Amino acid sequence: MSNISPFNHTHFIGYINQVTPQFVKVHFPSSVLMKSFSFYGEQLKGGLVGNYVVIEGEQFGFLGKILELNLPEKERLELSEKSFNTKEFHPVGKVEILLSFEIFNPSKIDKGLNSLPVIGAKVFICSSEFIKDYFKGFGVTENDKNDAPTIDFGHLTYDKSTLIELSQQALFGRHCAIVGTTGGGKSYTISKLLEGIVSNGSKTIIIDATGEYNNHDEKDYSEESLVLSVNSYFPYSRLSVSDLFALFRPAGQVQQPILLEAIKSLKIVHCLMRDKEQYEFTEDENIITFKIKIKDGSKKDLIIEKGCLKKQGNEISPFDRCYFKYVDEIEDNTRSDFEILNLIKQIQNECFQINGTKWNTYVDSRNSSNSTSLLMRINNVLNNDSFKKIFGFQINEEIDLIEAINTFLQSDNKSSILRIGFEKVPFNFQVREILANAIGNYLLNQARSEVFKDNPLVFFVDEAHQFLNKSVKDDYFESELNAFNSIAKECRKYGLFLCIATQMPRDIPNGTLSQIGTFISHRLINYQDKEAVANACSTANRETLAFLPVLGAGEAILMGVDFPMPVMLKVKTPEIKPNSSTPLFKKR
């Protein structure tokens, strides 16, 4: 930023005549000073509500925003169309102090207001050149200012000549939320941010709830979209055990232990079949009998029948030996490495009580009857045509989503965007929340492995209120889905940055929303939504939030930890527009 003084006498408009901790008041010696004028080709707006001003203090300068204008009571009574054009008036303005800066080094900002202007301090119109340098430097250290990637984002709402170029680090470095009611401009904002990230050569993954960002597929900077249930699937083996519980919803103390035991048994089968050549075994049609050496050195039979571990009437000791050998894999609840199509049969095999060193030969009727509803739910999921494609229960030519993500992250080509389409994912069984949470968990584990340390990733979640529910629950079951909560809390230092977009911030879990450092707020009308933003954003104030209900399409208020002041702006129209237009009624 240039250190040229922002206090130009040709920009003078008034004096400070009242100072409070929240705001200052300005006396305009003449209403003429409030009118627009040109200065060296720059159109200066004068004293209008929403305009920025600079105030000259003794040691510090101050940047402020005009919130309110009025005339003294006596002059208000004399006001008429004729007198306004022929007589001088002396307006008074209310100005919010946004930040302070060193008077001889304006580029050095003091984020806290440790001092305030004094009575009689001069007030000047803020030039666009002076303020736009501030926007570019927000969130960037002095050493990184020349190299930090920026995004050409828009212009001030009240001054189209003041362009707003923002640091990508400031926008996403502490996670970001784009909020606003339908039609407020969220989709255009996301598209503009995607374009900015692409221009800087960074990588981004977007969960697209409705398919409105598929236009980016036409560009060479975008990978082919992965549309779940159409051309790709999320491998069920990458679901955590808690994800499976959320999908199948076993009842508390009755069905959950049986399901967990069945999963452990099938994991043992998976390990044995993988390491088959290490064991002595016999094979007869659909039955494989493994000879497992137990503690005393003898060998006992462990029988796998039609892909399931048979327990009825068999010894427990070979099962225990296999369990302890593969305990790390079996107890790894982040993966589900087993043949899920055998789960129903394995649950039935679990309905045998232990009797001494063996399982009983007769079925435990109580456990069997208690499992009936669980078996029906599992059967419904495994035989649902959509779920077969979504989770890879039945694979044709669909792409493995996890492998595609890994390829995208590791590739050095110019592809910068990977779109994961949820437009064909059904809403039943809360499968959308489970899927999004599973993708989030995978990226979370990658971040913990420091995959993104040198090449940070921005992870967009559109229509986040559809996915970021606190839990999946019914009358008998409840499971927490907290991947995004963990990403928001942990992953800033790992280089995984979350950007959520929602029209209902009140539905976003508090744990996630409280970790968001940057808010781009379009029009918000609902009181609870406004309060959710106000409570989560420490830089928000009531004067700024008062503008939220009256913002036009594409207009937004930018607030954040790395932004010393809220900024009211108009987002630039993106080059690639999202498919978010409202269908028109037609006369027939």
From TrEMBL:
Keywords: ATP-binding, DNA-binding, Helicase, Hydrolase, Isomerase, Nucleotide-binding. Residues 152-445 form the Helicase HerA central domain. The keyword Membrane does not apply. It holds the Pfam family HerA_C. Residues 457-561 form the Helicase HerA-like C-terminal domain. Gene3D superfamilies: P-loop containing nucleotide triphosphate hydrolases (3.40.50.300). InterPro entries: HerA-like, HerA_C, HerA_central, P-loop_NTPase. It comes from the Bacteria. Signal peptide: none annotated. This is AAA+ ATPase domain-containing protein. It comes from Wenyingzhuangia heitensis. The lineage of its organism: Bacteria, Pseudomonadati, Bacteroidota, Flavobacteriia, Flavobacteriales.
